[in-house]
Design a protein that fits this description.
about 240 residues; mainly alpha
Length: about 240
């Protein structure tokens, strides 16, 4: 290789080296000028429990007043059995009087006189039957009312306990106290009237007892349905 060719080869090599160094230096300069991104720390958001909204709680009524004692109800049931038998006897007597007049055993005037007496007896029996049925109906209605109030009180206490448990877990401070529930006090049956006082005229017979029982069952079914709905809401919650 001639000295001239060697010099050209060395010059070309230095040119390539200089070019590579220049490009590398320029790249480093550009990289140094670009600002580095700062790592963003995730922001933590503190969730504060909201204050409970004021809720007005209506007081649950105390246990219903019982105006009919168990002894009075038992006596009314026994008297109804006897009155039913007396009614059958009087009805048979009235029928037999009309048959006797048709057979010619008594005159029409005698029949009317005897029928009037038995009709008065029938009116007295029906009035007593209506009075005793009213006693039994009132007792059953008051008993059902007491049971329904007790069911509501028990359910209310259960829901209130669960509310307090959830509030405690969430750290929610209750600002308003719920209305105090009056203590359940069962009233004693009202005293009977003195024996010397005359009883007021017996009211007209009330609707059959079966209607009262149907009404009681209807109310009981509505309450049970409402309680089932509350239990379902608690389960879903």
């Amino acid at each position: 290789m001639t000295p001239l060719l060697a010099m050209e080869t060395i010059s070309a090599s230095w040119i390539w080296i200089a070019a590579v160094c220049g490009i590398t230096g320029f790249a480093l300069f550009i990289f140094w000028r670009i600002p580095k991104r700062k790592e963003q720390k995730p922001e933590t958001i503190a969730i504060k429990p909201s204050k409970p909204e004021p809720v007005t709680i209506e007081p649950i009524p105390p246990r219903a007043e019982r105006s009919i004692s168990e002894e009075e109800v038992s006596k009314a049931r026994e008297e109804l059995k006897i009155l039913g038998l007396e009614k059958e006897i009087v009805s048979y007597a009235l029928t037999r009087l009309y048959e006797a007049q048709a057979e010619g055993k008594i005159t029409e005037a005698e029949r009317d006189r005897l029928v009037g007496r038995y009709k008065d007896e029938m009116s007295r029996i029906e009035a007593r039957i209506g009075h005793n049925e009213s006693i039994i109906t009132l007792h059953d209605l008051e008993k059902s009312q007491s049971e329904l109030i007790k069911m509501f009180r028990d359910k209310f206490d259960e829901i209130n306990r669960k509310i307090e448990e959830v509030r405690t877990r969430l750290g929610v401070v209750e600002e308003l106290k719920p209305a105090e529930i009056p203590a359940a006090v069962e009233e004693k049956p009202k005293p009977k009237k003195p024996a010397e006082e005359k009883e007021p005229p017996a009211p007209k017979p009330t609707p059959p007892r079966t209607k009262a029982e149907e009404k009681i069952e209807e109310i009981r079914a509505e309450v049970l349905k409402e309680l089932e709905r509350l239990e379902q809401m608690e389960t879903e919650g």
